[in-house]
Amino acid sequence: MSKKIFLRAGAIVAASTLVLAGASGSASAHVTVSSPDAKPGGYAKLVFRVPTESDTTTTTKLVVSLPKDHPFAHVGAQVKDGWKVEKTTEKLAAPVKVGDVTLSEAITTVTWTALKGGIPANDFDEFGLSVGRLPEKVDSLNFPAVQTYSDGEVVKWDAPRTEGAEAPEHPAPVLKLAAAITPVAAATDTEKGSSDPLARGLGGAGLLLGLIGLGLGLRPRKKVQS
Which residue numbers delimit the YncI copper-binding domain (predicted)? Predict the structure, then answer.
């Protein structure tokens, strides 16, 4: 009987592991933006995580668009071995005051192009920006991105998201600023209940413990000798 209980518990653990793996995998498949120090009115490091969603090709180019309605006075791009980085400056439709500076033009796109190789199949890489100042009284910032593969395929991560609606297939990376007092991370897969990695982890752990408890609770009880 103890062998059956052991096998039942093992099956429950295996099933729960698959559930957790599936949940984390669906979120990591998108291009995302996060920041360890983003605060309204301050400077921040932005990190764009880019996965190669292919078994046969590599990611060779990434273009990130910066918000024109809330331009940055400063944009510094991470220099990466094996990648060429370019920044494009455009004239703004109207001057925008950022802190003590009034901008008539601003950097609107940053492009990383692989000099060789790129991001291998089924792997990921991260690309950083140092920006500022971040706008105040703004809940979030969108950073549409374009990902190019070695076979010529182009994926545009630019779809807007609507609260309460199903998440689009290729959502634009979003950095949330409303709760930026502590380090924040904005994932593009923002379906309610699945956008927060910590919440997914805690929820998955609870499911796992619950299933194990259920399995143990189903084990046969010893008969009481009368």
Answer: 30-177
DSSP state of 223: P
Give yes or no for a contact between 146 and 154, defined as CB atoms under 8 angstroms apart: yes
Token couple for 155: 């994926």
Q: Are 169 and 19 in contact (CB under 8 A)?
A: no
The percent of the chain in helix, strand and coil, each rounded to the nearest 5, is 20, 35, 40
Tokens of 127: 């690309």
Token pair 């919440």 in the structure block, residue: 199
Q: Would the CA dihedral through 146, 107, 75, 133 be positive or negative?
A: negative
Indicate the burial class of 87 (C-beta count within 10 angstroms; 0-12, 13-18, 19 or more): middle
102-151 per-position pLDDT tens digit = 999 999 999 999 999 999 999 999 999 999 999 998 999 999 999 999 99
Query: Which domains does the chain possess?
Result: 32-176 (2.60.40.2230)
Q: Which two tokens stand for residue 48?
A: 């764009």
The token pair that represents 92 in the structure block? 């703004």
Residue with tokens 């984390």: 24
pLDDT tens readout for residues 23-33: 334 345 799 99
Beta-sheet strand order (sheet of 145-149) = 83-98, 101-114, 59-65, 145-149, 154-157
Q: Which backbone phi and psi does 144 adopt, to 5 degrees?
A: -55, 140
